[in-house]
Design brief:
The complex is a heterodimer. By secondary structure, chain A is an alpha/beta fold. Chain A has one domain: Rossmann fold (3-Layer(aba) Sandwich). Helices cover about 35% and strands about 20% of the residues of chain A. Chain A contains 5 helices and 5 strands; from the N terminus they run E-H-E-H-E-H-E-H-E-H. In chain A, strands 2-1-3-4-5 form a 5-stranded parallel β-sheet, with helices on both faces. In chain A, helix 3 links the parallel strand 3 and strand 4. In chain A, helix 1 packs across helix 5 and helix 2 runs parallel beside helix 3. The longest helix of chain A has 11 residues. Chain A is globular and about 60 Å long. The termini of chain A are far apart. By secondary structure, chain B is of the alpha+beta class. Chain B has one domain: CheC-like (Chemotaxis protein chec), CATH 3.40.1550. In chain B, strands 1, 2, 3, 4, 5, 6 and 7 form a 7-stranded antiparallel β-sheet that branches. The longest helix of chain B has 25 residues. Chain B is globular. The chains are: A alpha/beta, B alpha+beta.
């Protein structure tokens, strides 16, 4: 059964990068553009893991996190400072990833929490051999 | 109200951080220019993110030509360099790049005791506009080059010490 991942970020670009990073893996990606939409999506989709931005309009990631129950969260943040990292750790997230990040770093972090399996690549169909 | 400048070299920090953002997210090796005039654009896209708290307020601006903004967007989205991109995509990518720059600066300020929060990004597009700030606001302009595209990062920052 594929892993279900919810990406909550107001930036479509970041959601796109997350989707591109996860494309080789057997998983279903759901998206939301802010915390409020994220809570609705989390209740509906019941994801195995949530990738959550911090600064978003309508409802930020920290507020959304306080309303979530028992779903592992990786925070995606542009703020790398010591105080911010301590603050995020106290919120009970499983991990965090600082922007800018490389796609491999994202896969590494997600793969430590859920088991990512590469999609099976179907063998290329052999070209018909012309009759001699 | 006294104005205090903390032991933070904003130019040095932002130069390194911008180089990191462009290399990590866009695979672009940009060159900081130590001398020369700021770029003049015919058509310009500017990303801006504000930050504010009790002891510090300011904003970070990323100024790009429309052509380079398009190039950055294609690089971020993994598309061919000259592919035409919609305004929504360009604004989102430039906003996110500016957000990463401002987020790094915000963290550095917080770690030095200047607690502040950042805004969500905003985009300004146009052919001729100037961003001005009051005289008591520290102003830094950093110019960079990538493959003949010249672009700039501008920071307006004010430190306040309440007595």
């Amino acid at each position: 059964m594929p892993i279900k991942i919810l990406s909550v970020d107001d930036s479509r670009t970041i959601r796109l990068i997350v989707g591109r990073s996860l494309r080789p893996y057997d998983c279903i990606l759901c998206e939301a553009a802010n915390g409020e939409e994220g809570l609705v999506a989390a209740a509906r989709e019941k994801p195995d893991i949530i990738l959550l931005d911090v600064t978003m309009p309508v409802m930020d990631g920290v507020t959304m996190l306080t309303k979530l129950k028992s779903i592992p969260v990786i925070m995606l943040t542009a703020e790398s400072g010591r105080d911010n990292v301590i603050h995020i750790a106290r919120l009970g997230v499983r991990d965090y990833l600082v922007k800018p990040f490389k796609e491999e770093q994202l896969i590494d972090k997600v793969g430590r929490i859920v088991q990512l399996k590469r999609k099976e690549v179907s063998a290329p169909t052999a070209a018909p051999v012309p009759a001699v | 109200m006294n104005v205090q400048t903390p032991s933070l070299d904003i130019r040095h920090y932002l130069t390194g951080h911008l180089v990191e953002v462009f290399e990590t997210m866009l695979s672009m090796k940009v060159t900081p220019l130590t001398a020369g005039q700021p770029p003049v654009f015919i058509e310009r896209v500017t990303g801006s993110v504000g930050f504010g708290g009790d002891t510090v307020t300011g904003a970070v601006y990323l100024h790009l030509s429309a052509k380079f903004a398009n190039r950055i967007t294609t690089a971020m989205l993994g598309l061919p360099p000259d592919e035409a991109i919609g305004e929504t995509e360009v604004n989102d990518v430039i906003g996110e790049c500016t957000n990463m720059l401002a987020g790094g600066l915000k963290s550095t300020l917080c770690d030095r005791g200047y607690d502040c929060a950042v805004s969500t990004p905003a985009i300004i597009c146009g052919t001729s506009f100037v961003i001005e700030s009051p005289q008591d606001v520290q102003h830094e302009l950093l110019v960079f080059d990538y493959d003949g595209f010249r672009f700039a990062v501008e920071v307006h920052i004010k430190f306040n010490q309440t007595n």
